[in-house]
Amino acid sequence: MQPLGVALVGHAFMGRVHSQAWRTVGRVFPHERPVERTVLAGVDAARARRAADELGWRDATDNWKEAVLRDDVHIVDICTPGDSHADIAIAALEAGKHVLCEKPLATTVAEAEAMAVAAGRARERGVRSMAGFTYRRVPALTLARQLIQEDRLGRVLQFRARYLQDWLHDPDAPFSWRLDRARAGAGALGDTGSHLIDLGQYLLGDTLDGVSAQLATFVDRRHAPDGTPAQVTVDDAAVFIARFGGGTLATFEASRFAAGRKNAIQLEISGTKGALSFDFESMNELSFYDATEPSGTAGFRRILVTEPDHPYLRAWWPAGHGLGYEHAFTHQAHDLLTAIHDGTDPAPGFEEGLYVQRVIEAVETSAANAGVHTPIATS
Amino acid sequence: MQPLGVALVGHAFMGRVHSQAWRTVGRVFPHERPVERTVLAGVDAARARRAADELGWRDATDNWKEAVLRDDVHIVDICTPGDSHADIAIAALEAGKHVLCEKPLATTVAEAEAMAVAAGRARERGVRSMAGFTYRRVPALTLARQLIQEDRLGRVLQFRARYLQDWLHDPDAPFSWRLDRARAGAGALGDTGSHLIDLGQYLLGDTLDGVSAQLATFVDRRHAPDGTPAQVTVDDAAVFIARFGGGTLATFEASRFAAGRKNAIQLEISGTKGALSFDFESMNELSFYDATEPSGTAGFRRILVTEPDHPYLRAWWPAGHGLGYEHAFTHQAHDLLTAIHDGTDPAPGFEEGLYVQRVIEAVETSAANAGVHTPIATS
Amino acid sequence: MQPLGVALVGHAFMGRVHSQAWRTVGRVFPHERPVERTVLAGVDAARARRAADELGWRDATDNWKEAVLRDDVHIVDICTPGDSHADIAIAALEAGKHVLCEKPLATTVAEAEAMAVAAGRARERGVRSMAGFTYRRVPALTLARQLIQEDRLGRVLQFRARYLQDWLHDPDAPFSWRLDRARAGAGALGDTGSHLIDLGQYLLGDTLDGVSAQLATFVDRRHAPDGTPAQVTVDDAAVFIARFGGGTLATFEASRFAAGRKNAIQLEISGTKGALSFDFESMNELSFYDATEPSGTAGFRRILVTEPDHPYLRAWWPAGHGLGYEHAFTHQAHDLLTAIHDGTDPAPGFEEGLYVQRVIEAVETSAANAGVHTPIATS
Amino acid sequence: MQPLGVALVGHAFMGRVHSQAWRTVGRVFPHERPVERTVLAGVDAARARRAADELGWRDATDNWKEAVLRDDVHIVDICTPGDSHADIAIAALEAGKHVLCEKPLATTVAEAEAMAVAAGRARERGVRSMAGFTYRRVPALTLARQLIQEDRLGRVLQFRARYLQDWLHDPDAPFSWRLDRARAGAGALGDTGSHLIDLGQYLLGDTLDGVSAQLATFVDRRHAPDGTPAQVTVDDAAVFIARFGGGTLATFEASRFAAGRKNAIQLEISGTKGALSFDFESMNELSFYDATEPSGTAGFRRILVTEPDHPYLRAWWPAGHGLGYEHAFTHQAHDLLTAIHDGTDPAPGFEEGLYVQRVIEAVETSAANAGVHTPIATS
């Protein structure tokens, strides 16, 4: 059977992780149709070629448009900074290629809307699009959603989400495109807060009505690696309070200044029948409190999410032999291939990515207006 | 030397804990002047007498005014519901008695202001007043303040505080005075949120400028133990975002619906040089991250706060033989006795209690106004 | 009703903790007959008087025999070093006084046998004796036993027990009577290992058949506080493997050189239907794994042992307001008073204390014989 | 440059993990000479072919001898049950192929000795051999060794190691070759206990003098998947006490009946200057206690071993984005390739594998002789 050719656009951190996923997916999850790492596109031809050799892609180019239009490319995987997502994704969808686009979907709501429109049109022609909110595919979080759907928490009353990092904690940490509003769209809010917003819609199957927010930039001038001073134009930390449509009270925080926390996605979800607690720094564990247990033996139980009957786990190692960060990307590739094969829409699609973008915009609007409750726009 | 006579007003949960503290303080912490448990006041004479016998108080009365005016009473310890604090405290201070008043100081800002005025006048006559924000005296939190004062955290950028309980989680949990706005002033916000507000000013030595808040009442009708239906007129959960005067970004949550959390005061404080993390459910531990350590060996260290050189610990047991909830009340009594002996003001005084009340009011105002940033009133 | 008079012999660490228990027990646990702290006996009259004042005992003496024979003394509480236990306990029992004796019961099996004989004779006259293995009364461990008795673990296959401290870790830590075989009987093995041996018989309701052991003394010369050099004649660490009569495989370790562990009693008990895990450094928690749960949601659950329906807890504070080290001593006093009132034998009695002594002896014998399996003597 | 061809013998659990490592190593760790997955050998030709396709090996065979002798094969990777290790390894070494052999090295000391002799001879011809004790390459454990070598623990006094699993916990779990002494050599002792023995020599750079042991078989009859009853001829659990040559007191346990523990390699190592604690179920963390810190701020610190300056980490993801079980196998392949390139001996070699085998034999001898101390044979 003819292989599915993939074009990877971008070969920095995300490109490397996605490469590992594309190399691994067919070896761990059986798929009828093989995957081929056809071409890697970058901005510089020589560096793209070197990256292709290192990461295992056949061809290399400095022209993403060319890569996207190739006949032997069926999937376009976008791993570039946010300001180029819309152009690449729309071009690829129009060319009839399935698209996997890193998050956040775009840098503005307008771009995200255009992408969602393009994705809608492409869908009619059987072309799939997917937003790369990978943490949905950490088995502990997939299990969390299952437990919520099975009503193990009852009515969900409170949703708390924090994404804590500390890489900007050092005032001498260098300036990068991630601190530039024009390229990144937003700071902690867009980069990691977007994951929390997506996890909210994923885990609860519900969307936010509105938000009340504050943003902070603790260090507003930094230096690029070459010594040039630069203005930080994004948030270092974002906090907001919100309500889900179904009434759940929610709090969110994204910070790049949480000393000692490296990639701590911390969730605690409380319902009338139980609660869940999670920290990505212990990504193979999910804590579950079953409030229907007798009080004498009730307690948060630490589920080691490595059993064969846990999501995605049957394909991997025996119980107790934990997974790492990159595995969620392999699961993402697996789910996309499955959707393509089955002719169904993978989740999250661009519409869910657009929703995340709208929440980000509402957060910024609220923060600019003394924290007043700001509704989330709907189309 | 003539003993210091104590009058205890109220003999429910708080009265019982305070009794244990008054029994213990002189046996563990050496004080020149002995303490006498002189009289216990309640609303019903027979029940007060029974409580006095059980808890070890000499006399009993159903007339707190009489107790407060006795010549052999030097300290009045107020453990009643919030709506009677002002009357008792002001009467006691005017009668020249030192006052220890349970938190929150009052049910309204107006009451708290009157109390602070009375405390100010009494101070001029050498009469002391103290608000019962006991968690300051959990050794791990006293140590936390020391570390912050020693600049181990550098500039404090973020302060996060949650007080999670789940005793209302059961929709059939009975109605009590704590759910009645008239008697309790506020719900989770006043009862446990007040501790967080106080811990903020205690740990950071700073006060909040303003807040942006939401309140939630998840179950608004309950039944009294006798079956009478009653309206819940207070919040079940309160969340708010705030800024300290010095710029620290802060988030607060108090909830009585956090399934599985019994008395979880969870703090995480991030600074430029380090961070602290605490959970009262492991009250003998403080986690400290020293960001000045080489990254290869940096990590949150779990300090078991039971060493002789930790606050209050020299008086107790050897290292590793942890303390419990009630010990902070013994420390509180010890600190009050020390202040009385030394002729200094114990902390927190009624002014700090008034500040907490003002924050509570601002939170309610903000929540009633779509979360808009609401400044904290100053006198 | 005439109060029960208590004579306390010894007023060092244990005497102070027992005093706190005797002060507290009647205030927290209702007993018909009040308890009186009648007399404190020490080796020096002036120091005994000072201790009595500080700790709240009416009389003081430097003659324990006199104290033990007083008509107004009904309970003798022995808190002296191990080499005087037998004399005091036997004299008290012969005088018809109930005896609570600190652990380990004695310094030799011969002494412990004599004490058990005396306890047996006294029992016939309604006189009670109790060995002070207090950790049985930490609520989490009392709950552990309940769960085992309720068959929640099924057949118990493995029992692992460690008691880790580090107070000798510093080679300059001073010499004390605890390092002198003549006075202490044994080192870590007797002082803390004895608790583990008792917890084994308590939790499993079973006794050891024999042991295979090694002892280590890492620092064999130290200096007394006055500078005199002294030979360490006890073990610094003891490890042994054993089998319970019912077939459970067991491992034990007691160490005073476990850097960073202050009073870590660590248990892990595995059965065919579940497992329990405990660490005294988090004494309000018990971890329970229910192997009958579906594997998808099974996990060690952290039971916060502070609920009203947990052992001893109804008498204390609301859920989540944890207890400390000393509370187990109050429970011990409560259980002794209950047994005296009911005319039943408190547990553990001197026979159980004698068993512990025999295991200690077998451990020492095995260690002296290249670790060969050494059976536990029976009478 | 001509690629290094690898022959994989065996394609069950270990073969699958090794395949993932060989696929990944060159993409993550730069090596001048590429690696080729040349041939996969199994016992059944059809199943081998299927496995080769699935796991990404070019050729397949049911004749390992043929595979081993191919000119385009330079490395033989042995992932078969223990009883075939010696034959394959010796044949490969004699054919001049580098060998990576899964642990335990063999099923008997005699086999292991023959393998070590063959490895010694091969070494003289520049042919390398390596025993697959992969856990050395979990970054947290590599870091542990670094800290010990840097004297951060001072003199190591105690070494405690447990390897807890529960897959035999269910009495209806099926019989497999791992429960057959003839094929597996030993039970928990050989399978997982061997890792602990290796970690001892790796972390401490020291070997055991002798052991005192007990073995247990809790369920001695099981059924094969086809229903045939079979006798369990290996241990279900092994416990032993030992001394390292340098004086460190050591305890070991391997169990397949520890309910709730899935792959818990638990270490605690205490020295005069500090301590380390580790649990593989949280494999990205190492706990370190620095006893030279002031007691007021000392505590076990949880090092998240995901920093660029931690072992192997620079090649992977940013801090906080943890690794999984399989990564240690990629590190193993990387270290073997480096040794081959550099012309040095990789560690652990077959001599270290032979030492592990000798300890296993001594444990079995001691257990058969009432636990008496049994010295470890030396050549």
From TrEMBL, chains A, B, C, D:
Residues 144-276 form the GFO/IDH/MocA-like oxidoreductase domain. One of its GO terms (molecular function) is nucleotide binding. SUPFAM superfamilies: Glyceraldehyde-3-phosphate dehydrogenase-like, C-terminal domain, NAD(P)-binding Rossmann-fold domains. Residues 5-122 form the Gfo/Idh/MocA-like oxidoreductase N-terminal domain. Keywords: Oxidoreductase. The keyword Oxidoreductase applies. Transmembrane segments: none annotated. InterPro entries: Gfo/Idh/MocA-like_OxRdtase_N (IPR000683), Gfo/Idh/MocA_oxidrdct_glycsds (IPR050463), GFO_IDH_MocA-like_dom (IPR055170), NAD(P)-bd_dom_sf (IPR036291). This is Gfo/Idh/MocA family oxidoreductase. It comes from Streptomyces acidicola.
